[in-house]
Specification:
Elements lengths: L21 E6 L7 E3 L3 E7 L6 E6 L2 E7 L6 E6 L6 E9 L2 E2 L5 E6 L3
Parallel strand pairs: 2-9
Antiparallel strand pairs: 1-3, 3-6, 4-5, 4-7, 7-8, 7-9
Length: 113
């Protein structure tokens, strides 16, 4: 006599896997990672995030949602430095509810020379 068959399924969720999103800021003109000049093009690159995760950035007195990481966990935000943002900035990037590393991200913007 065969034992009675029962229907069932298991969902595998590897609880030990943790995402550690990383954020880098890159000056597209010089390759500098921390100092930018007014007029420079820049790119923030998020890596190591869960797919389709909400990407947000905050500074003292300001915050915004920027979009979602793609299916590979990447997100890129690009632009050009304006003359109204000279100084040293501390930004905290949050991806999928996790603060990215380094957190907060510090970079300096200097006047055009």
């Amino acid at each position: 006599i065969w034992p009675a068959a029962t229907a069932g399924a298991e969902i595998y969720h590897p609880a030990g896997i943790q995402f550690t999103p990383q954020v880098q800021i890159v000056d597209k003109d010089t390759g500098s990672m921390t100092t930018l000049t007014v007029g420079d093009s820049f790119s923030f690159l998020v890596t190591g995030a869960p797919p389709s995760s909400l990407v947000s950035v905050s500074e003292t007195g300001w915050s915004a949602s920027l979009g979602y990481s793609d299916a590979s966990g990447f997100f890129r935000f690009s632009g050009t430095i304006g003359s109204d943002v000279v100084g040293t900035w501390l930004q905290t990037w949050t991806i999928g509810g996790v603060v990215a590393q380094p957190g907060p991200l510090q970079f300096t913007i200097i006047p055009k020379q």
